[in-house]
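User: I'm new to structure prediction. If I give you an amino acid sequence, what do you actually give back? Let's try with this one:
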Amino acid sequence: MQHTIRGVPAVVDDALRMRARETGKRLNEVGIDALAEGAGVTQAPRRRRDLSDVAGTWDADPAVEAALAAQDEPDPDLWR
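Assistant: Good question. You get back a string of structure tokens that encode the predicted 3D arrangement of the chain. For your 80 residues, that looks like this:
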């Protein structure tokens, strides 16, 4: 059985082609590998994105905190 995937975004196509060059595999082969990995049907553990590079990089903003807190308060007009 043969599959054809159309509409592959350029960024995905570029990444697959780079992986094919780096590993010496055919483009279809790395595409199947990527699909299997994404579907969780390989023996290899799935890679997870480590967010440590962005953790702690935001600044507290009192206005934003106040707006979020106000969302949690009940609206007295709803109960009239």
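You can read the tokens as a compact description of the fold. Here is one thing that stands out. Residues 8-38 form one domain.
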